[in-house]
Amino acid sequence: MVRRGAHDAPRRRGSGMSSVLVLGGGFAGLLAAAAAGPYADTVTVVERDAYPVEPQPRRGQPQARHPHFLAPGGVLGAERLLPGVTDRLAALGAHRIGVGADLLFRAAGGGWLDRADTGRVGISCTRNLLDHAVRELIREQYPVMFRTGCDAVELIGDSRAIRGARVRDLRTGAVDEYEADLVIDATGRGSRAAAWLDRLGIAVPGAETVDSGHAYATQMFRAAPGAESDFPMILIQADGRSGRPAANAILLPVENGQWQVAVGGTRGMSLPTDDAEFRTYARDRPADPLLGDMLAGAESLSGTMVSRSSGNRRWRFDRIRHRPCGFVVTGDAATALNPVYGHGLSTAVRCATAIRATLAARGADPVAAAGLQRSICRAASDPWQIATSQDRQFSATDGAPLSALERAQLRYGEQALRAAAYHPAVAAIVSDVMFLARPARSMGHPVVAAGALLGSRRPVRSEAPLSAREFGFRTSGRVA
Ligand SMILES: Cc1cc2nc3c(=O)[nH]c(=O)nc-3n(C[C@H](O)[C@H](O)[C@H](O)COP(=O)(O)OP(=O)(O)OC[C@H]3O[C@@H](n4cnc5c(N)ncnc54)[C@H](O)[C@@H]3O)c2cc1C
């Protein structure tokens, strides 16, 4: 059966585009659908899983069991693509995290940052809730069709043009052909786009990889009484500059009065496997025992779940010599990042923003896909550079060694971070870059450059900047 719904629909005036087919309905696929919504007559999302009615785990997103912070850069972009998304998430129980004010952040090499409010907000909730809210809003705002329980199995087309995809209905086994003017692959880390293109005679340059071997162990906890709706997020980065394996830790206050807590480490760290080991690790392994102390009296609500899905991997679909029309790749399917930097979701937002900009400017000319793929890759370029240069500091990382320039940039960044602990103006810019709310080149801003010079002479801030209430909690295990 050939589904031609897209071509049957009237074309929008002034736009050559009539139909967009998105493969994969995770965060990147949903936002790509939202991006295309105003510029296509039909948008169809093909998703392998059946979506749960309530925010619940599902098979195709094993990473959803681990903390997912939507950084301020992602929040700003998501709000432009899906107006009202932040309020919807907050109404469903997500926490707005004022970066600075509500975040205790110990940066690798930079010590604890100041609590000065930067005016930027990130979103802290479970990944299940995040995707649930985004799906709800898309259904309300755009006539997107969802084909769930359906597996994209291959592309339809030839070496010059992709015209759609073959899709297997997992309930019946039937394979349908879905035609579209633009096919967007958003099937995540496991994407088979390169193999699909290869079968059509299109050679994709090999993937670039940088793998620090980072692993995560996550547990859910009940927030301490009194701390359910008002407790800071905690981020302690792994400090691997010594060359030894290094540990990180993260506490996200999430919906339903719970904390989603992860500890992790670079290659060579052995991870906890049960509650007792988890608590010991959280106290003893990261560069500061703060998170372990905060957990002392907290009730564990789950087992310990491990993820090793952390390698940075980028396919250069933008560098295909003879690109076929009508096909682009986005989200983790194109650029997957080490999750410890918390950039994957925001990168998906940036890619979706690039999709919307191209469709707004060029309509649906399938030929525009080549330029669109370049924009998508550019959108992921800062996050890729940040994650891979940080990871390549660790001696056990698989990847090209750092160049002298990259080493100098990292040193400069550390000095800027030290300065950020004392100068709110420096902190505002540096944290914007870290959370993808400004381009990485903003690190060259004169305020940051002056700060980096001063920062080299300031000691790192070694004590977490706790409020009196948090300090009381740390020492007594009770919220006053
Ligand atoms: C442990 C861990 C923690 C993380 N923490 C953070 C964080 O704090 N902040 C952050 O920004 N990012 C974080 N990330 C990264 C984030 O999970 C990814 O960047 C994000 O999921 C990318 O979204 P995506 O839509 O590209 O992929 P996914 O969310 O993986 O979605 C892919 C979708 O495609 C579907 N699919 C796959 N194959 C097919 C097919 N053939 N046909 C149809 N459907 C298919 C899947 O079922 C799934 O729904 C973390 C990742 C991990 C592993």
From TrEMBL:
It holds the Pfam family FAD_binding_3. InterPro entries: FAD-bd, FAD/NAD-bd_sf. Residues 19-361 form the FAD-binding domain. One of its GO terms (molecular function) is FAD binding. Gene3D superfamilies: FAD/NAD(P)-binding domain. This is FAD-binding protein.
